[in-house]
Amino acid sequence: MVRRKLLHAALRAWVIQCWWRSMQAKMLEQRRRLALRLYTCQEWAVVKVQAQVRMWQARRRFLQARQAACIIQSHWRWHASQTRGLIQGRYEVKASRLELDIEILMT
């Protein structure tokens, strides 16, 4: 009878130990998933910030290039309006060379 009680106690202890090990494994898995979720959120936040910075840099470069193009166009238009009608010329293409005859009229 004592052996039977000791056997039952040992079996109960073994069942409790098995249950405790399974609970520890579940808690470890939950902690691992939580850590993975947090890591993923942080990575996405970093990716989003990097994308915003790259977009801002690209936009800044685009705006600088557009401003430079506008400046060049305005200077070219001014130059074209200042020289319009002042340069007259004719050209002839001969067999081996290009002969230019340009008259510059100053008014």
TrEMBL record:
<dbReference type="Pfam" id="PF00612">
    <property type="entry name" value="IQ"/>
</dbReference>
<dbReference type="InterPro" id="IPR000048">
    <property type="entry name" value="IQ_motif_EF-hand-BS"/>
</dbReference>
<dbReference type="InterPro" id="IPR039887">
    <property type="entry name" value="IQCF"/>
</dbReference>
<keyword id="KW-0732">Signal</keyword>
<feature type="signal peptide">
    <location>
        <begin position="1"/>
        <end position="25"/>
    </location>
</feature>
<protein>
    <submittedName>
        <fullName>IQ domain-containing protein F6 isoform X2</fullName>
    </submittedName>
</protein>
